[in-house]
Structures are given as structure tokens and as C-alpha cells.
Amino acid sequence: MGNICRSPTAEGVFRYFVETGGLARRIQIDSAGTHGYHAGEAPDPRSCAAAGRRGYDLSRLRARQVKTADFERFDLVLAMDEQNLRHLLRICPEGLQHKVKLFLAYARNFEEREVPDPYYGSGGGFEHVLDLIEDASAGLLSDLRKQLTGT
């Protein structure tokens, strides 16, 4: 929602996967929130700390609100939960709704459909978010690699 926990974590993790997977020149990654109340702010310090313990750097990311142009600019617009998915579909220009999906649709080892918001929970929630995001990132990268390279 605010682009300070889940979505910047997903951006940082997926960017790492893409860079180490050799596809950084072919895949553009960004994150945004459905609401602008944290625009310009750095990710939540707890997200940064949890990500840092696993080798992901979120320090340069800043929150922004999703724009209508994002639906044209990107091939995929991925939501962390059903509420944000519904919001994205409401603001999505007609004919582009096929680009909007749940991020965990790409997860291979978890059956959860939504990445829970760890903001109001305990510190362990940030670790679980990372587990889910790493899994979905691996699945997403695998799918994109097949599309881009045929392998």
C-alpha cells in the first residue's frame, strides 16, 4: 500500500535475482504503492534490516505511488495482496488488466496467495515476507527467462 515494506523488499530481492541471473539489461524493475502516504520515504528500517541479513540492499529505494502510466510502461504489475490487486484493477486503463496479477502466483513452495503486511506485527513477519518473496522471485525469474531466452 505505502511502498515501504513488501513491495520495496520484492523490488530489492527480485533485482538481486535478475542481476545475478544475468538478465539485468533485459528486465526493468520498480515498485510502487497503491497509496501515496509514504512517497519519498525510505523502506521501513525493519524491512531493510531483514533484507540486509540476507544480502539484499534496499537503502537506495524510495516510496512512490503507482501511476496510470505504469500499466503501459511495464509488462507486469504485481500486487502483494487481494486488496491491492483490486485497487490496481480499478485504476488500470482498459485493455491492460491482463498485466495485473498477484506476486505469489509465481511462488513454487508456498501455497499462500498473499504476502502478509508485516508492518504492525513482530519482527518475524519480515523474515516470512522474505521467504515468500524469494520463492516468488525465483519462480518469476524462471518464467521470464523462458520467455526471453527460450531456456
Structure, explained:
It holds the Pfam family LMWPc. It is a single chain. With 151 residues, the protein is mainly α. The protein has one domain (6-149): 3-Layer(aba) Sandwich (Rossmann fold), CATH 3.40.50.2300. It has 5 helices and 2 strands. The protein has a two-stranded parallel sheet. Helix 4 links the parallel strand 1 and strand 2 (100-102). The radius of gyration is 14 Å and the shape is globular.
The rounded Rg comes to 14 Å
Beginning-to-end CA distance, first to last residue: 35 Å
Write the CATH fold name.
Rossmann fold
Q: What is the helical fraction, as a range of percent?
A: 40-55%
In the sheet with the most strands, the strands line up as 1-2
Spans where pLDDT lies below 50 across 5 or more residues = none
Summed up, the domain count is: 1
Number of helices: 5
Q: Give the overall shape.
A: globular
CATH architecture: 3-Layer(aba) Sandwich
Largest sheet: 2 strands, parallel
Number of strands: 2
Structural class: mainly alpha
Give the DSSP E fraction (strand runs of 2 or more residues): under 5%
Order of helices and strands: HHHEHEH
